Each structure stands twice: as structure tokens, then as C-alpha cells.
Amino acid sequence: xxxxxxxxxxxxxxxxxxxxxxxxxxxxxxxxxxxxxxxxxxxxxxxxxxxxxxxxxxxxxxxxxxxxxxxxxxxxxxxxxxxxxxxxxxxxxxxxxxxxxxxxxxxxxxxxxxxxxxxxxxxxxxxxxxxxxxxxxxxxxxxxxxxxxxxxxxxxxxxxxxxxxxxxxxxxxxxxxxxxxxxxxxxxxxxxxxxxxxxxxxxxxxxxxxxxx
Length: 213
Ligand SMILES: N[C@@H](CCC(=O)N[C@@H](CS)C(=O)NCC(=O)O)C(=O)O
Description:
213 residues, 4-stranded mixed sheet, Glutaredoxin, alpha+beta, binds glutathione
């Protein structure tokens, strides 16, 4: 399978889940500023929205998925024994999907206009407050001593939250949320996360050196 990723973005969630599952991904770097890809493909032909992640599961143009939560849920659903996601159709899964949508809408997509400096002063204050409230809810969830968002084992939700942990870039003051910060440190130490960072750095560096040559 081929994963289109960008440096330091939500595509890391897909890498982490693939690593947890022991899947090999062929990585393609999309430079979101220069708009080039490490394999020379025109990315607008892959995703006209110019968003990563995109996962290609085959050679056909239809054999691809976009939308982070869809991709990571799909991979986890293919390997139910790994326990990265509850069984589809159960109430537990509905609650889990609720958490994924919460991370997508209340966290990931709230950070982006702040990071891109697209907001008025009022918009900045509003968005940062919403982000702090959202992270506080997750902090409450983690305050019962669980190691990860839904229990003591890592899940798809943890991978997604980690890959969108952008408070430093968006200026959202969340460092006082001790349970969230302790969770982040636990995630940082996971071999699946470390491997994702190494492999992302390698493909980004090789793309950049090819462009510079
Ligand atoms: N709805 C998409 C949005 C993905 C998204 O925002 N991707 C960002 C990186 S996290 C991106 O590719 N940005 C490129 C750009 O804005 O040019 C999803 O949830 O996967």
C-alpha cells in the first residue's frame, strides 16, 4: 500500500497504525508548500483537495481512501485481533467514532486556521478557547489513570490525537493539562511512533535533497 504523507501532519496517524499492525507502507512525500511529490506524481490527480493522507490500496484510481479517520479505521478494522478499534456496529464503536469525529472537528480542524494565521484577534481567542475546552475533556477522560484514551492499550484515537498535537504551533495553552501531557509523553515513547518519525524524516529528506540537486 502507498501512503501520501506530508511533513509533521495528520498523516502520521496512518503511519502509527500501520506500524502497530506491522504493515509495510510505500511512502510518498507531498510538499504542501512547493506542491511537488517525492515520486514525481501530480498530487492534484491523487487528491484534488491537496490534502494528505491518501492511502492507495491498489493500482486503480478507485483503490484509494482519503480522510484520516476513514483510513485509520479501515486499517484497524482489517485486523480486529490487534484491538486498535472496537467492532463495527456496536455501541462501543459508536462512542469510539464519536471520539474520532471530536478529534477531527474540535481539535485537528480547529488548529489549522490558527497555525496558518488566518484568523482575526477575536477568531484566535475563540478558537484557542475551544481547543482548551476540547483538550480539557480529554484530560478529564485520562484522569482516571488509564494509559490511553480508551483504556490501557493504544488505539486508533490515540494515533490521531498524537498526530494532531499542534498546540505549540497554534498557541493553544494546554500545557497545564497534566494528564494529556503525560499521555503525550507515553505516546512519544512508543516504538510505532518512533518508527513513524524516522521513516517520515527519511522520505522528506530524500525528497528535499532531490529537489535541491
Ligand atoms: N479532511 C481531511 C483533512 C486533512 C488535512 O487537513 N490535511 C492537512 C495535513 S493535516 C493537509 O494536507 N494540508 C495541506 C494543505 O492545507 O495544503 C482529513 O481529515 O483527513
